[in-house]
Amino acid sequence: MTAEMDASKLMKQQVGKAAADRVQSSSIVGLGTGSTTAYAIQFLGDRLKSGELKDIIGVPTSFQAEVLAREYGIPLTTLDVIDRIDIAIDGADEVDPQLNLIKGGGAAHTREKVVDTLAAEFIVVVDSSKLVDKLGSTFKVPVEVIPMAYAPVMRAIEKLGGKPELRMGVKKAGPVVTDQGNMVIDVKFDSIDNPAELEKTLNNIPGVLENGLFVNTTNLVLVGEIKDGQPSVREIVKG
Ligand SMILES: O=C[C@H](O)[C@H](O)[C@H](O)COP(=O)(O)O
């Protein structure tokens, strides 16, 4: 493992723990997707096991989150049997100064947006590499589409000035298939000046299920960073 990988792992672990520590007993918890949230799920499981935390129920945002929650002993529920989510913990691929996000690097943004926006408190967990001045500067915007519509959706996105690319599988021939059985188009925009408007415009293309722009969805981002050689966590609160 390189020193860079070590640092990234340490930052993710630390921030995952900090988020898990904020969960209180008897909470219904939205369980996000990705490598950072995976640590939060693991630490929630540890707190349950030690008896420090009691009676939490998780709402998974993906097959990955569901499998991890089962592995770490977190009981699960679904949205048809609960009427609230107290807190959701989820990662992000980019965070801008207004705390708007790009998500969906793991193709889970559709279910994540449902769960995260239902939560009374949505905590984002990232390492410091995810902070950007402007959304779209390092990451493409993921757009989930129903399979029969992928070609016209790509043409419509080109007309909006985006450069669309069908996301292809790794160790799987052909496209990535989401937990809903759909496809993902990653879109490079030269400049995202109005994320709120772009989020709506993309979702308005027939055949699009959901895109990875999360605008005004969170007031709290926890950032894992390395300071003086030690992992630490910084809070960014929306003012
Ligand atoms: O679809 C995946 C999610 O939006 C993830 O939360 C996001 O990609 C961040 O993942 P990671 O913590 O692995 O960087």
Automatic annotation (TrEMBL):
<dbReference type="InterPro" id="IPR020672">
    <property type="entry name" value="Ribose5P_isomerase_typA_subgr"/>
</dbReference>
<dbReference type="GO" id="GO:0009052">
    <property type="term" value="P:pentose-phosphate shunt, non-oxidative branch"/>
</dbReference>
<comment type="similarity">
    <text>Belongs to the ribose 5-phosphate isomerase family.</text>
</comment>
<keyword id="KW-0413">Isomerase</keyword>
<dbReference type="Pfam" id="PF06026">
    <property type="entry name" value="Rib_5-P_isom_A"/>
</dbReference>
<dbReference type="GO" id="GO:0004751">
    <property type="term" value="F:ribose-5-phosphate isomerase activity"/>
</dbReference>
<feature type="binding site">
    <location>
        <begin position="33"/>
        <end position="36"/>
    </location>
    <ligand>
        <name>substrate</name>
    </ligand>
</feature>
<feature type="binding site">
    <location>
        <begin position="90"/>
        <end position="93"/>
    </location>
    <ligand>
        <name>substrate</name>
    </ligand>
</feature>
<dbReference type="InterPro" id="IPR004788">
    <property type="entry name" value="Ribose5P_isomerase_type_A"/>
</dbReference>
<protein>
    <recommendedName>
        <fullName>Ribose-5-phosphate isomerase A</fullName>
        <ecNumber>5.3.1.6</ecNumber>
    </recommendedName>
</protein>
<comment type="subunit">
    <text>Homodimer.</text>
</comment>
<dbReference type="GO" id="GO:0006014">
    <property type="term" value="P:D-ribose metabolic process"/>
</dbReference>
<comment type="function">
    <text>Catalyzes the reversible conversion of ribose-5-phosphate to ribulose 5-phosphate.</text>
</comment>
<dbReference type="InterPro" id="IPR037171">
    <property type="entry name" value="NagB/RpiA_transferase-like"/>
</dbReference>
<feature type="active site" description="Proton acceptor">
    <location>
        <position position="112"/>
    </location>
</feature>
<comment type="pathway">
    <text>Carbohydrate degradation; pentose phosphate pathway; D-ribose 5-phosphate from D-ribulose 5-phosphate (non-oxidative stage): step 1/1.</text>
</comment>
<dbReference type="GO" id="GO:0005829">
    <property type="term" value="C:cytosol"/>
</dbReference>
<feature type="binding site">
    <location>
        <position position="130"/>
    </location>
    <ligand>
        <name>substrate</name>
    </ligand>
</feature>
<feature type="binding site">
    <location>
        <begin position="103"/>
        <end position="106"/>
    </location>
    <ligand>
        <name>substrate</name>
    </ligand>
</feature>
